[in-house]
Structure formats: C-alpha cells, structure tokens
Design goal:
Blueprint lengths: L1 H39 L29 E4 L4 E3 L3 E7 L5 E4 L2 E4 L5 E7 L3 E10 L5 E10 L4
Parallel strand pairs: 2-8
Antiparallel strand pairs: 1-3, 3-6, 4-5, 4-7, 7-8
C-alpha cells in the first residue's frame, strides 16, 4: 500500500514537472516570436487607447482579434536604480494578464500591476493579456537596472 502511494506520488510529481517545463518552453517560444515580429517589422499597425483613459507612455501592438494592452509604468527604455519595480498597465476589464512569469487579473477598470525583480542590465518585459472570448494582446518594454547610478 505504501509503495503504491509513493509510486502514484512520484508520477504526479513528474507530471507536474513536465507540465511546468512545457509551459516554460511555450512562454519562451512566444517571447522569441514576439521579438522576431518586432525585428522584421511584420506588425505594421500600431494602436493606442484614447488619451482620456490611458497614458501615452507605452506602445500598444495590434494583431487580429487582439486586445489593447498598454504598459503605463515604467516607460520603455527607462533605467532604474532599484532591482524592485511595480509594472502598471491597462487592458480590458477582468482579462488574464501575464507579465513575464507572473500572472494577475485586470480589475473592473482594466488596470493591472505586478511587482518584478530585475537583473542587472537590460530586462525585457512582456505583457500578454487574454479575455474570456479568446482575444489576445501583448506589449513589450525593456527596463535597464543599473545599480551604479
């Protein structure tokens, strides 16, 4: 009995590890595809939400069936002197939001925030949001952490 429990537990742990690795690989693939799109200019349209509802500090990319996703703080290509930042943004209400490896839900106004720990140097930050209808949107910035400044 004890041996079968250990076997079942071992299988469960291996499955969890496998799904975690698969999720990590898919996320990195999506991040790499996003970078390729930016490099080769395959996205030709840019949209921002109206200024009365959002700041114009961030770029919002538009894809077919995409959500609007805007990073309002920090701004793209900014340099910070603290490894800890709070990323803030706006999308549609109640959307699932993924910021690098962290997940959150946008509030009723579409606002979201996530605390991040940066590594020294350039830190690419990708935000991907999806709603209950299956629409997806993304936005990416780079923040530089310089502990010597």
């Amino acid at each position: 009995m004890k041996q079968s429990f250990v076997t079942i537990l071992s299988i469960f742990v291996l499955l969890c590890i496998g799904f975690g690795i698969a999720g990590f690989i898919l996320f990195n693939k999506r991040l790499a595809e996003s970078k390729k799109i930016k490099e080769f200019g395959e996205i030709t349209t840019q949209r921002t939400l109206p200024t009365e509802t959002m700041s114009s500090q961030s770029t919002t990319s538009a894809l077919e069936n995409s959500l609007k996703v805007q990073i309002t703080s920090p701004s793209d290509q900014s340099t910070v002197t603290s490894p800890s930042i709070t990323l803030r943004g706006k999308t549609v209400a109640q959307a699932e939001v993924f910021v690098n490896e962290k997940e959150t839900i946008a509030d009723a106004g579409g606002n979201f925030s996530v605390n991040l720990i940066l590594e020294e140097g350039d830190n690419p930050i990708m935000v991907v949001a999806n709603d209950q209808s299956g629409n997806v949107g993304e936005s990416e910035i780079t923040v530089t952490y310089d502990m010597n400044e």
